[in-house]
Amino acid sequence: MEFGSAQLNTYRYILKNIYQYCHYIFFYAKNQGYLRYYFVFKRKKTIPKLLSGIFFQYSEYYLLNNARREEIRMEERIIKTSVFFNDTLFNETAEQPIDVDLTLPDYCPDISKIFKCRAFAGVSAKSLNGRNITVDGSVCITVLYSDDEGRLCSYEYQYPFSKNLEMKEECTGGSLSVRARCEYVNCRAVTGRKVDIHGAVGITVRVFKRRSTDIISDADISGIEQKCESAPATVPMGCSEKYLMIEEDIPIGQGQPSVCRVLRYDACPCVKESKIISGKIVVKGDMSVKILYCTEEGTPQTVKTVIPFSQIVDMEGVGDSCECDTRADTAFLEIKPRLSEGETKSFALTAKLLLTCSAYCGNDIAVITDAFSRKYRMSMKKESICFEKICDTVRENYNCKKSIELDGPTAKVYDIWCDLQSVSTKFETESMVICGTAVICLLTGDEEDRASYFEKAVDFEYSYPLNRSCENLKSDPELEILSCGYTLTGAESMEIRIDIGINASIYECRKMSLITDMETDENAPAEQTAKCAMTIYFTGDGECVWDIAKHYNASVKEIMKINELEGECLPAGKMLLIPAL
């Protein structure tokens, strides 16, 4: 209601002067849409003459149990807030088998012994059409072996695949995330020219969509007690993907013998920086490349290089206040010798990277987790929502050192690399711990340059300190082997150095049951548990003020005020006075 200045002055004068006749005054601003004052007088027959004959146009007066109550009609209102979240509609892992019978081309020597069969899976295209999901990609298979003379040889084969999956319901406007990883691969030489290869690729497919739901964040309704909390919400702004083609010429260096053939290669992309600039995300990183090749003299050699890359990814609605989680995956990789002016002194690299950017904006919101009416029966609708918030971002290089024993004396090491076998993440006291197993692979040679192969599995553990509680945290870190080096410490022992790039976003997850709608029935009074004006109550173990107030239909604030409580959590056996209002 609106009052003129004269009415307000008179009204304030009454409240100021009536206080001398009262023990105390109750004031409520939320009671059936009225402003309500309760005056409890010192003597039954002492009602101030000041009140007689005064009437406001928009107020009503009642005399109840020696108390005068004034009510000013106000409009009831409920404030709702939209909460955005990513709703996962589909999340499955499908297996794509690898079954290949290879016959070596004429330019490859016969197989004497197979050392290692490696397989790398990449996704080149994906689509979501209604309920149908299509994933296209290829598996790069490399067979490392020795010929009859003990020389190191290899053969590379691209195995294409296409996987179709079906959702239960059609999806329009959803985002599709696909990750492929070779689970295992085995091979055997059927003859000196034929190889039988079997394995499997795990294809993890996730379809999600940005949704919103309206929850009640405040209710200005008379007689309603509300349990208010703050939810650490992170608003998902979107997910964008972009393919980046890289073509580079990699020289072997001056004075080096010409390249005969490529034996093995690796390329590891790593995101170094993601910067948001008004609707765009600037991604910067580099790709570490290592090539093992054979010279025309038949000697294995290695070349290493780092190729920087940068790309702008469009994403509508993102700003400087948002945070970004960016990853780079290799979709396709091919390295071949390049012939120039009659010599092969460089390599032609062709790579296709998939940049995936997910943007979030932090925004803690006020929510109501529980409510009850002190006067009427009330019905509520609730919805369980999981809030996720990026609380920390990790971009570090972890150096792991291990000592290993070899099978026998080693004259020279042609190549060393490392493959991640398994990775797990756990949260301990004030730290995130990443545990994993890496397989150390060695190609060695004896005094007569006869090649041999050795591998050893080693465990590693990385700990990242946190400045917060580790409850309700989750992370799916991305680990990449950046480099692998060695130092011979004896005839049959060496020290291994592994540089692991760690890229992780740590999320704080909080699942809350929130009120989406509430309604009171003024024709149905609330059941009153208290049978008298004041109840003496002794608390049990783990009880809080809210639960006690809800049981007795009492006011939380009044209970805390009368009993001079500082916190809502109470010790066992504490005596409380609970007023019936």
Features:
581 residues, disordered N terminus, 3 helices, 26 strands, 4-stranded antiparallel β-sheet, 5% helix
What's the short story on this structure?
With 581 residues, the chain is mainly beta.
Task: Count every helix, treating DSSP H or I runs of 4 or more residues as helices.
Answer: 3
Cα separation of the termini:
25 Å
What form results from the Cα inertia axes? elongated
Helix content: under 10%
Strand content: over 45%
Mean pLDDT: 82
| Contiguous uncertain segments of 5+ residues | 1-75
The number of distinct β-strands equals 26
| Rg, nearest Å | 36 Å
Main β-sheet, in a few words? Answer: 4 strands, antiparallel
Strand order of the largest sheet: 1-2-4-3
Q: SSE string, helix = H, strand = E?
A: HEEEEEEEEEEEEEEEEEEEEEEEEEHHE
Walk me through what this model shows.
The chain has helices at residues 5-18, 545-552, 556-562; strands at 22-31, 34-41, 59-64, 67-73, 77-103, 113-146, 152-171, 175-189, 194-220, 224-231, 234-251, 259-276, 280-295, 300-314, 322-340, 343-362, 365-373, 376-405, 412-428, 431-445, 451-465, 473-475, 478-490, 493-525, 534-538, 575-579. With 581 residues, the protein is mostly beta strands. A four-stranded antiparallel beta sheet has the order 1-2-4-3, with no helix packed on it. Strand 6 (113-146) and strand 7 (152-171) form a beta hairpin. The two termini are 25 Å apart.
